[in-house]
Queue: 3 jobs
Job 1
Amino acid sequence: MKIAVLGTGPVGRTLGSKFTALGHTVAMGSRDAANPTAAEWVVSAGAKARAASFSGAAEGSDVIVNATAGASSLLALNACGARNLAGKVLIDVANALDFSAGFPPSLSVLNTDSLAESIQRVFPDAMVVKTLNTMAAPVMVDPQLVAGGDHDVFLAGNDDDAKAVVVGLLQEIGWQPGHIRDLGGLDGARGMEMYLPLWLRLMGNLGHASFNFRVVS
Amino acid sequence: MKIAVLGTGPVGRTLGSKFTALGHTVAMGSRDAANPTAAEWVVSAGAKARAASFSGAAEGSDVIVNATAGASSLLALNACGARNLAGKVLIDVANALDFSAGFPPSLSVLNTDSLAESIQRVFPDAMVVKTLNTMAAPVMVDPQLVAGGDHDVFLAGNDDDAKAVVVGLLQEIGWQPGHIRDLGGLDGARGMEMYLPLWLRLMGNLGHASFNFRVVS
């Protein structure tokens, strides 16, 4: 697949490298096609990787991954251009963290809304699927890193075909089917995003980010 | 110990019965000392149980458990009287669920605040400890009900002695020390309370409430 990864931070770079390692073609999008972090990433990620502007990355890609900071996700997606998102799977892995009052961050959208739903409203022709936002980047791309892979990833979205594409990608990454929990429609993203404060607290409690949670019943 | 359980709902009755079974004396507090649900509970819970008004329950108790609906918790605690809460361990197991727009509920306090912190601000002389709000009542009192007890309970509070009392009670109930996760100060309650939307979604997804989550690392 041709995947656009928006954002040059640790999440974007980690996901981008994993997708190229799996054989996909990845365009890393940022405000500036000559972004030095993206250029450096291209060198490390090899022949299937390229850097581009947001719109240059989104155009011609089959799947778009929003790995930008939540506070600037709508700006980045606007820069992609609605026509470059229309009809495509838009995987939202971002969290709307507000660091304006320091650490811990608060959430800038929550409760009766979510970042994922905000994105879906602005880009009704994209097929938004929320996933992977509930863990650190190294765990996203290597479930085996934690408890032999015995922990869970969630997804939520309004389009079943789009979710099937995402489930396929998650399985390629190494997520076991029994640990991929479909929470239904995109409003399921509210709970996934509102889990972040507990995740951040657990990270402080444990002293590291190599953890996840497993639903047991 | 002498324990006041505020609230006659499933959580209050379940916790009250467990505490009496463990040998504690329990006063179930409600607006009306003659509350028929409380009276019925007293019959089922036996000689160590009694029904009382909120203030009648709190007065003379060593530990107060807030098992009221989050929307009416401050009213109930006000009815207890600040002097009956002062210097006591106040275990807050409630969630500030707002059902005014139907199901799923939203939260009426969150993000940079929590119900537990609201309670602590209004009753600064109580020692508020948040715990057990992240699971259904049957799981609270019987961790073995789920995955042989291999899952986690959180607590948060500003007073270490109060937290030690709560840890002791959790262990009496059957929670294994390694599964009791102290998240630090009472602001840790934010994450514990904001987890509720995900919990509710998982309940819908699983079709039952006999589940919990386990942190794996």
Job 2
Amino acid sequence: MNQVLNSELEKLTDAILASYDSEPRTRRIDDAFLPSRDRIVELIEEIRQLLFPGFFSQKVLTRENVKFHVGSLLEQIGTHLTDQAAHCLCSDLHRTCDGCIDPGPCHHQAAQIARDFLARIPSIRGRLALDAQAAYDGDPAAKSIAEIIYCYPGFYAVTVHRIAHELLKLGVPLMARIMSEYAHSATGCDIHPGAVIGESFFIDHGTGVVIGETSRIGNHVKIYQGVTLGAKSFPKDERGRVIKGLQRHPTIEDSVTLYANATILGGQTVIGRGVTVAGNTFITESIIADSVVEPHRQEMKVRSKKKP
Amino acid sequence: MNQVLNSELEKLTDAILASYDSEPRTRRIDDAFLPSRDRIVELIEEIRQLLFPGFFSQKVLTRENVKFHVGSLLEQIGTHLTDQAAHCLCSDLHRTCDGCIDPGPCHHQAAQIARDFLARIPSIRGRLALDAQAAYDGDPAAKSIAEIIYCYPGFYAVTVHRIAHELLKLGVPLMARIMSEYAHSATGCDIHPGAVIGESFFIDHGTGVVIGETSRIGNHVKIYQGVTLGAKSFPKDERGRVIKGLQRHPTIEDSVTLYANATILGGQTVIGRGVTVAGNTFITESIIADSVVEPHRQEMKVRSKKKP
Amino acid sequence: MNQVLNSELEKLTDAILASYDSEPRTRRIDDAFLPSRDRIVELIEEIRQLLFPGFFSQKVLTRENVKFHVGSLLEQIGTHLTDQAAHCLCSDLHRTCDGCIDPGPCHHQAAQIARDFLARIPSIRGRLALDAQAAYDGDPAAKSIAEIIYCYPGFYAVTVHRIAHELLKLGVPLMARIMSEYAHSATGCDIHPGAVIGESFFIDHGTGVVIGETSRIGNHVKIYQGVTLGAKSFPKDERGRVIKGLQRHPTIEDSVTLYANATILGGQTVIGRGVTVAGNTFITESIIADSVVEPHRQEMKVRSKKKP
């Protein structure tokens, strides 16, 4: 290191240590080990290999080798999922045991979570096949279902959501959140693992989509880039604290289409079955079924740049 | 692996294999090898090194070593491009040969594609120099053209589009799509490789930009974050299937500026030469040349929070 | 390499070399070495380890080992920061010395920058603790402050901004810009390092947020996805060149909330203390304190899809 720095190293170190002492919220010292974000991201890719055999692996799958491939992948995912779930359960973030001096109970519970998750793979596969079909049917630019699985960011985000939502239900919300934020980073779609999403869901383009924690979405819903399903305001208790657990985000019924940059807010807001919402709209009240919402034509003003 | 899982491994494997059989859309077993997304992403970086010598390589280029550098880079890109293009041509996604029992024809065609692509490098360089200049002229925060090439995400997205568009025209749409989706992930700009974009094009900030497959953009066009050039509705044939091949996305003529989050939809929509479109507008009809489109001022309501 | 290509290699090489000669804006030959984007991204992660001990490292920190950990991390960061800052100072992009035939002065200045930056770590930590608290208070879905530090993309973007803003002030704008564009790519939040941001700042979801170079933001401001603080037009001098150095972006006073996709433009635009701005609004004039801005209700048109 350079000389100037060397001579000040002791002083700098002490100043930083003092700031660790004075601000405990932003340090973890003498604390449980956090899960590894990198390992959890690898888990997503391993699970995708299991969900879509032959798409993401570097070997050709055949009728003969597929059973071996699945068995070994299951073993690998089971081990990694158990390890990381145990770290999630033990860590302070969402503590479920008392300090975890003995990590045994966390590990036992984590193994059960891994087993339960893997048993749900066939049903997740079934839902994702419907989602891929919905994307193919909904996008004239789509050349094949394989292209959707291989390339479409909206489909990637939905895949990770279907995985993360199950992990949340199985009791590892931190792992679910790490996965959904990774998908957010990769695709620009921010889907909270808690959102409940029906069958045949399609997000086109996807960047800027936000789907809040308590959103409820029906079947055959189609969403374009920049759509927000958000909270309007947060009901507070008599001490001014936000009341948790209420529905803060909208309900979207079956067969709704939300075009680019529509913003829909509020836990009481219900977009009825079959509604079409135009782009760049801002909606905070319910819309009755089978209607079209669009801005008034006179909203725009067109004037010439030419001097008269 | 943990004991619980081991004892159930056989049962889990069988359940998952059964789901592979019952849902063929989401598996590739006994099927041609897919191209490697990772290798195609590396190709983008190799091509950028060729396009912008001295910017992204880890050695200093001089008049003396540059010829050797270019020759060896060309050889490397030629090999990788041929390999991946052959996988694209052979794979089911966009099959061009009959099952590819003999991969020879695919490989021969891929080598020709690689050669044709590399011959276009000088003309791609010419276009990108104009794009970089347009970014410098259009952004007061820009310190130099080098900063734009090195840092600007919008320029990165345009660079990948200029590459992907040529590869699409040369017959490898899957490779083009993988590249454009990578740029989408890295920058938030979703430009379909099919879009036709004129000279001196500048995307500022870029996150949330969507430019659809059949968009046509003139020269000296400037686009800000969140702008969508999208489809309004999809004309269907008598059997209810979307008719492919029609222009579904807008035409933007020369010297147009589209501010943040403008949404412009429809294959019949033409934004005339010299038009300026304000932010957060929603346009589904043509705008005549040399005009300004903006929301009416009275659209906003401002009320005091203070009790009267 | 394939034969077709080999036979043409010489011709291709010459054509590309000729295009390097004819278009100097997009090449760096016989020029100073650029900093390494990859190394600067690693620096961000090393600095985050220093800022948030125990969150991102792969070992458990204890009262006993933390001093050693900090000392060795400081040494590592000091070396890497000095090296990359020297490259930034030497490179053409923001040249501060004359050709840098002797890199000594650049390296000496870079070492001073590294030392000054590290001395600011405790104060950056203090600000980030307030930002994390603001995120926890502002988001009902947040389970703990640790979850925010570990998972929230908006908090990541603010962390990188607090680092990059100091580096800009210390005289390495190119390093600052590379860091902020990396955060932009990872989170969809494009915060220019020059923006001045007060205490307890919270960006929720974050994708599509753009905060321009000359924005000024007060304390306790909350911003949602898709919000733009942008420039309206660029005042030009008598020769038609954009005048640099003026405030082109808005001022946001204390305790303002800006909902999703609000677009606020112009250097003269001041959003007064305590204002709430609804989503999808487009604002180019100042708003007085303690008011609410929202679209008129009649803006939307709802019509039935059913035939009468």
Job 3
Amino acid sequence: MIKGKDGSIIPKVVIERLPRYYRYFDWLENQIEKISSRKLGELMGSSASQVRLDLSYFGDFGQQGYGYNIKKLKNELGNILHIDTPMNFIIVGAGNIGRALTRYNAFTRAGFKLKGVFDVNPSLIGEKINDVQIYDAKELGPFVKKHKIDIAVVAVPKETANDVARVLLENGIKGILNFAPMDLDLPNSFPVENIHIIDKILALSFFISD
Amino acid sequence: MIKGKDGSIIPKVVIERLPRYYRYFDWLENQIEKISSRKLGELMGSSASQVRLDLSYFGDFGQQGYGYNIKKLKNELGNILHIDTPMNFIIVGAGNIGRALTRYNAFTRAGFKLKGVFDVNPSLIGEKINDVQIYDAKELGPFVKKHKIDIAVVAVPKETANDVARVLLENGIKGILNFAPMDLDLPNSFPVENIHIIDKILALSFFISD
């Protein structure tokens, strides 16, 4: 449970919206100095009251009748999201998705450091992608422990995803970004974010056919 | 606005959960015949009443005191999600993410047919990935129109994402799965699903640091 500045519990959905605010401020900062909650809501497709409520959890950023100072708010949100504290991460699975993520520069730009990639395929082990080494999946546990890895991106087939998650947890991983098309069997409060690509396209195909 | 069997409006969040139910039924169908809303809720990390409410929008699937017939429910959900009606799609952007998605077999397994990939890079145009041709981005509009493409996966840099979206819309695309790290400028009710990888890992990094 994560608490805001005034001690109230911050809903998970609010936290998940913060990176989106950060993105907007990052984009706005070179264009204007301040913005009203109404304008910001319009831009982001939500309401002024939603914006005010979301941001109120993290302190008193806005000024009545003046609007939000964009640069200040961006910096504050950056601190909250630990943009400036480099976190390290690994990628488990060097298949299509894992390899693409290894080359995905946006992680580096957002302050995440890729420390290694892991796979079971002997023909991949030892290979380097952009200076990042592919290690034998057998070394996963000790590596996570030794290098104090913060986050693991799981991009393995669903058949092995839970085994991978177990090894990660036993060795002190703090959070998982899961691309395997299933829900991992994790303790209730464990930080996990799922990216289920197929769920998204199936939902789309429902929306577009009447 | 999408309406359920009894005419009530189905919330978007409910629809977005349906593929997840489908995944669970697909997995359960070879193991057991029926399941109670309580058990299903436990498995999926939600409550029995949530499960009953979600599924009630789509008809009377359950039987009081008996539980849900898994095979029947899977088939019904499959119909609702149009699993059996093949949809065709294209991928715009043959960068890291676009190329990985081109090779991502799960789309085919879920009934989606990849008709082409588009890029602006002359050295990629004409290349084939798994029998799928990379076309010049200039041909995007006419291609979408001619081949009646249902869905476009947008995997281009954020600087060009809105230009791509505009061309897609003008040529009759029905839905967009957006990987570009921004919100596309689309009409309010237009079917779009976003996969913002960086937002997810930023939210994670907030959750894991106290």
